[in-house]
Specification:
- 2 copies of one chain form a homodimer.
- Chain A has 188 residues and is mainly alpha-helical.
- Chain A has 7 helices and 3 strands; from the N terminus they run H-H-H-E-E-H-E-H-H-H.
- Chain A has 2 domains: 6-94, Winged helix-like DNA-binding domain superfamily/Winged helix DNA-binding domain (Arc Repressor Mutant, subunit A, Orthogonal Bundle), CATH 1.10.10; 106-187.
- Chain A has helices at 11-20, 27-36, 47-59, 83-94, 106-112, 119-148, 157-185; strands spanning 63-68, 76-81, 102-104.
- The interface between A and B is large, with 66 and 66 residues.
- Strand 3 (102-104) of chain A pairs antiparallel with strand 3 of chain B.
- The structure holds a DNA duplex (28 and 28 nucleotides).
DNA sequence: GTCGACATGTAACCAGTTACATGATTAA
DNA sequence: TTAATCATGTAACTGGTTACATGTCGAC
């Protein structure tokens, strides 16, 4: 008898399994965690979706749910990976299929249609982008330092790699904005 | 009497209006065009969505539809911007609201969960990414040259800006992959 | 005679969002 | 007393995808 048919899960499920591999968490915790980590290079699901996803994972036997009563706070449900959940996670990370990243820039789209734009507001838009990205960069660099300063109890290797990825991309965006502003300003 | 309530359109509508601002096109043409242009920094809609979107735009009075009979080919419907469509497009490009780009990397997500991975396959994944991005870079650089070589009948400014954006981001991805591979290989 | 380009569309589906709903505790 | 944090969920909606459906022409 073959094992129950393993419906293949959407990426989001794996993102959640992955986060739970660090430590058991509630839906609420997962949302906080996602906002601070994977949102920087992936995306952060709406909380309603997290709860939905957790029910699905539980039903599929990939996580367990533990009801925890608290008195100073609302009760919570803490989810943890099952051995099968752990296996599925590794399998996914290890899998050979490669998926291209997706990059969707509203700013670039508007620049592409720059012919239909007022040049001044287009430059404004790019300046805005530049400011934003510089803040982003500062944030990421702070995260990097924090990561480097972390104790010996946890291995920062992978977190560091993703932070550095974020830094590279943010710098690229900064360079692009600067160049584009220059280019548009020098136009007649 | 106020003008008809202007339901605010999704981004995709503006992408289509923008493409039509270059020249009137059919749904089929739009798909080809999107694949070659905005897919590089935004995304390319499924054809079924383009046809749906065109109906919406027509209903909203932002494009006109012209039925063209062909004998060697199936008939087609060619869409063109109305003055109102053109106005809405400019308004959107010029608008002051800034939207952050979205970057969603499956590779980075998997690297982030690298603890759960076989180190070898993780490195494989990064190598794969590297190869892919190098091809991407070559393609973009070819596009850049082509753009620079274009005749005086059309202004390549904005297209060039987006291509150069693509080049910056792709280079960032290449640097990141190289660094990450090195970093993982040098681990014990 | 088969494949790819041309050309448009429908149907079924699902991923994901926002808004709504509830309610306790604690700090300003 | 007002707002933020903790905590979980439902309902309504839409954006977008894949698969299916149809049919001609020209090139190999």
């Amino acid at each position: 008898m073959p094992p129950a048919p393993l419906a293949d899960l959407p990426q989001t499920s794996f993102a959640i399994l992955g986060m739970l591999s660090f430590e058991p968490m509630s839906g609420y915790d997962l949302k906080q965690f996602a906002d601070k980590s994977i949102s920087h290079f992936y995306w952060s699901p709406a909380k309603s979706q997290i709860y939905t996803e957790l029910r699905r994972l539980k039903k599929a036997g990939l996580v367990t749910e533990e009801h925890i009563e608290q008195d100073a706070r609302p009760d919570k449900r803490v989810y943890a990976l099952t051995p099968e959940g752990n296996r599925r996670l590794s399998e996914w990370v290890d899998s050979a299929d490669f998926e291209q990243h997706m990059f969707k820039s509203n700013v670039m789209l508007r620049v592409f249609f720059g012919k239909s734009a007022n040049q001044k507001s287009l430059i404004e838009l790019l300046r805005h982008n530049l400011t934003f990205e510089r803040e982003q960069l500062a944030e990421l660099e702070a995260m990097e330092q924090q990561c480097l300063a972390s104790g010996p109890n946890y291995d920062p290797t992978f977190t560091l790699l993703t932070i550095r990825g974020g830094i590279e991309f943010t710098k690229a965006s900064i360079r692009w904005s600067e160049e584009s502003i220059k280019s548009l300003e020098s136009r007649v």
